[in-house]
Structures are given as structure tokens and as C-alpha cells.
Amino acid sequence: MALGIAYDGQSFNGWQTQPNGNTVQDILEGALCQFAAEPVATICAGRTDTGVHGLSQVVHFDTHAMRKMYSWVRGVNALLPPTIRVRWATEVSDDFHARFSATARTYVYIIRNEANLAPSWVGRAGWDFHPLDVDLMREAAGYLVGTHDFSAFRSSICQAASPVRTLHTLTIDKEGVFLVFTLKANAFLHHMVRNLIGALVYVGKGRFSPHWIQTLLASKNRSFSAPTFMPDGLYLVDVDYPPEFALPMPKFNLNTPVLPQFLQAI
Fold first, then answer.
1. Is 53 inside any structural domain?
2. Which residue range or ranges hold the Pseudouridine synthase I TruA alpha/beta domain (predicted)?
3. What is the CATH number of the domain that holds 43?
4. pLDDT for 164-202, tens place per residue?
5. Contacts with 151 (C-beta within 8 Å, 6 or more apart), sequence order
6. Are 126 and 91 within one domain?
7. Does residue 133 have an active-site annotation?
8. Which one, 89, 136, 160, 181, has the greatest CB density within 10 A?
9. Which residues participate in the annotated binding site for substrate?
């Protein structure tokens, strides 16, 4: 069984189960166990950190419970807090794996670039009050697209076997006070998105030239880069799978403006 999950990450200690139980996985599995009347263990497409949000997280699990698809949505939602929602449910073949079958993940990072962060966006958007040069940031972003060793942008506790990732897309759009970063890759390292955003913001502030990004990539040294940016504005918005799995998930269209799609989805 596969489910599409959306959640507001503000009140949770990330996705992955922890002893204190205050994670999205813990809460979801508790509801699934109650609904299915049996133990349920989920595997997700991508583990998100504390404060990070999910609009299109995908999980799979094994179950003996026989329920209609709409019942998995409505029934489990009735057992969840309003900050977590099952968006869709579908049966999948035994060879489907939420993590290893995925071919790409897409994240959106939202920054409100204004003197004071609007209260309604606290916990839902990153914030910086400095004037940010978007053209310089876009030039810097161009150096990141492609296949690289992203060691300079991975957490010190990252457990990935290899730091090499392929970043397919990194775009920056500006609309009013919003800066919208869209990043699509085959996979991401721990804290990679937030570390990329932090470095691009440093370029936007004028602290470094866009070519600094090339220097960071070549250094393969995390200590030379900018601090990890806040989690508040980070959203997992899409996961790609081979078409044969036919998952009923909404897709982000990266060929059209992202902000209207994002605002409609949250």
C-alpha cells in the first residue's frame, strides 16, 4: 500500500521515528496501526528534518487489512492531528519502494525578503531582511546544476554512502517579497538544500561573488561554506516515480510559475 502525505512540520521533530514519539512517522504509524488493527511500519520517499514541511511525501507499507482506498484516506485522517493529512491511497506492486523506486525529488524553499517577517508566515517561510541581488544568486545557482560532489553542502552527520548527487534544476523566482527556490535532484544529502540556500543567500548579500560556489564545490569542505539556513521555508513538493507505478499524486509543473502552484497546495 502507498499513501501520499502532507504535513506542517512546525510542531514535529522531523519525519523519522524517535524515542519521544513526536515525529510525523510516529504519529502516522500510530494512526495506521489503529485503523488497520495491526502493526504498521512505513518507509518514506525522503526523510525531512525538524521544522521542514511535506506537501507530497510518499510512504509505503505492508498490511493484511482490507479497506477501500477512500477509507484509507478518510479513516486514517480521522485519527490524525490536523497538521498531518493523507492525500491519496493506492495499492502498489511488491516491487514498489517509496525510497528506492523514486527517480527524483523536488523541494521548494520560500524566503520572505522583507524588513519584518509577516506573522502569518512564521514557521512557514525563511526570512532575510537584507537586500538580496537575485541576478547574482541565479548566476551562482548555475554552477550547482549538474553532477557534483556536494561534500561542501552536506551535514557532518550525513550517512549517505556517496556525496555525489545530480541536481537537475535550481531556479530562483522573485515575486513581490517572495523568493522561490526550486530544486530537483535524483536525491539530496542531509541538510543539502538548506546549505545550498545559505550559500546562495551569502552571494545575494554580496558577501561573496557567484564564483565562490565553484570554490566551495572544489573544496569538498563543509567548514568553508555558509551556515545552514533555517528549516521554516523548506517543502518537499514532489517525488518522481517510473510511470508503471501509476501513483495518483499531483505533480508540480516546473515549466510554469511555481509560486501559484505552491500557494494553492499549502
1. yes
2. 6-100, 140-242
3. 3.30.70.580
4. 999 999 999 999 999 999 999 999 999 999 999 999 999
5. 163, 220, 221, 222
6. no
7. no
8. 181
9. 107
